[in-house]
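User: Hi! Is it possible to get a structure for several chains at once, not just one? Here's what I have:
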Amino acid sequence: SQTIHQWPATLVQPVGSPLSLECTVEGTSNPNLYWYRQAAGRGLQLLFYSVGIGQISSEVPQNLSASRPQDRQFILSSKKLLLSDSGFYLCAWSGGPEGLYEQYFGPGTRLTVT
Amino acid sequence: KQEVTQIPAALSVPEGENLVLNCSFTDSAIYNLQWFRQDPGKGLTSLLLIQSSQREQTSGRLNASLDKSSGRSTLYIAASQPGDSATYLCAVESWGKFQFGAGTQVVVTP
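Assistant: Yes, the chains can be modeled jointly so their relative placement is included. Here is the combined structure:
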């Protein structure tokens, strides 16, 4: 069966510090991978979307970036965090042998920028 | 641009009542619609996926319908239980990308 991992679970970082969040998927190959941010009491905002290694689409202009160095690894980064980067970050994957785009989510990372 | 709306934003019902959650979308050119559940501080759990060619999908006490032409989906939860308390989100998928509604927060009181 497929499993998606995210770490760390929680993170407190000062303004201006770098960020690296990691997501890995097990049990599938060539998945579509996604990074979302969820602000308190709000819906999910798609940040990045990847259909393959090195293929990243950015949905929202910001100081965040994403990379996909391996088929099942997706990394969210920032060189200098802003207060507005605080939120709940969720990684997800979709795809499958029948091409159904059912989406599955990781447990999330709670980021607080101080 | 696709817009997804969920009404109501919050709902409180006594245990045993049926729940009806609504999701509407502006662009009917979708491939799939998916319903999720989110518990506080947790990730999203997939409940049901309805393909665009389907009218409904059922899993246990859950039933979801889809009317593409009118841009609507409804999630029914029969005989609600306190454990059903959570936020429910719908998402529409086109070309591998998902657009989410803001969710309906449900409280089921014992």
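The longest strand of chain B covers residues 86-94. The interface with chain A takes residues 31-32, 34, 36, 41-46, 49, 51, 89, 91, 93, 96-103 of chain B (CB under 8 Å).

User: Great, thank you!
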